[in-house]
Amino acid sequence: MKGPTRVLLLGGASEIGTAILAALRLPPDAEVLLAGRDEDRMAAAGKQLGCSVRILGYDATALETHPAVVADAFADGPVDLVISAAGILAGQAELDRDPARAGLLVEINFTGHVTTLLAVAARLRAQGHGTIVILSSVAAVRPRRANFVYGAAKAGLDAFARGLADSLHGSGVRVLLVRPGFVVGRMTAGMTPAPLATTPDRVGAAVAAALGGHRDTVWVPPALGPLSTALRALPRPLWRRMRR
Fold first, then answer.
1. pLDDT digit string (tens) for 117-157?
2. Does residue 58 have an active-site annotation?
3. Are 110 and 153 in contact (CB under 8 A)?
4. Count of CB atoms within 10 A of residue 167's CB?
5. What residue ranges do the domains of the chain occupy?
6. Catalytic residue of the set 58, 150, 160, 182
7. How far apart are CA 82 and CA 130, in angstroms?
8. Which fold has domain 6-240?
9. What is the pLDDT of residue 72?
10. Looking at per-residue confidence, does 230 or 209 come out higher?
11. What is the CA radius of gyration of the chain?
12. Does the N-terminal peptide bond of residue 235 adopt cis geometry, omega within 30 degrees of 0?
């Protein structure tokens, strides 16, 4: 199967997002559009790809700007693959002390994806092909008391991704939903890894492999899939005792 030739990464400095790009092994004639706020980090990541890179200004919280960013990305031609990877993480205790920061986390991890991806979906539907990769989380399955704001945001994103996939059925556009577990990396620095922890490179490899097939959901690691079924079935009094 022919790989993508134009790729848009929303959250252009995302460690997982750039790991997906690396795992795709894009050809020299491909073009990658890195959309984000940290221009220095995006420029450094772009140098590692071995193909043409263009940097776009993108702020997940500037909702009114998202249609224009998407229009800019598609201005030079069709986009084959869009990776929606913008996100932040904060401890629940910190969010309890600062509700405004909790609101910001929800806006970045959920609302910004919605406004951007609706604009993306319209473009892909019009061109008749393309793939959207959405980075959800195992935290979306059943939010825990230890991170319920983050889990709620991811649960919203997860539901949106599934609804978006249904809305695009038959259009030639595919949605791949990615549910990693705890990812050891920049965003989780200083935190004790949870069981079945993974890395950005492993997530990248799993997504690249899934893009070569026909799956609509990928768990990283795969064992999280059956485990999530058991987690959903736990009685609530037992679930409340879980710290991680």
1. 999 999 999 999 999 999 999 999 988 888 999 999 999 99
2. no
3. yes
4. 14
5. 6-240
6. 150
7. 8
8. Rossmann fold (3.40.50)
9. 97
10. 209
11. 17
12. no
Q: How long is the chain?
A: 244
Q: 144 with 242: CB under 8 angstroms?
A: yes
DSSP H or E run through 54: strand 52-57
- Listing from the earlier edge strand, what are the strands of the sheet with 217-220? 52-57, 31-36, 6-10, 81-84, 130-135, 173-180, 217-220
| Cross-strand pairs, 82 | 8, 132
Can you list the alpha helix ranges (DSSP code H) found in 49-198? Answer: 66-74, 92-97, 99-106, 112-127, 148-168
Q: State the residue for tokens 């064992």.
A: 223
Pairwise CA distance, residues 150 & 244, whole Å: 13
Burial tier of 176 (Cβ tally within 10 Å: 0-12, 13-18, 19+): buried
Q: How far lies 147's CA from each of 21, 215, 243, in Å?
A: 29, 29, 9
Q: Are 60 and 116 in contact (CB under 8 A)?
A: yes
Residue partners of 69: CB distance under 8 A and separation at least 6: 35, 56, 57, 58, 116
Give CA–CA dist 197/65, Å, rounded: 35
Token pair belonging to 170: 């038959």
**What average pLDDT does range 48-62 have in this prediction?**
96
**Alpha carbons 71 and 185: distance in angstroms, whole number:** 32
Host H or E run for residue 219: strand 217-220
Q: 0.90 exceeded by the pTM? A: yes
Tokens of 133: 């990769």
Confidence of residue 191 (pLDDT cuts 50, 70, 90): confident
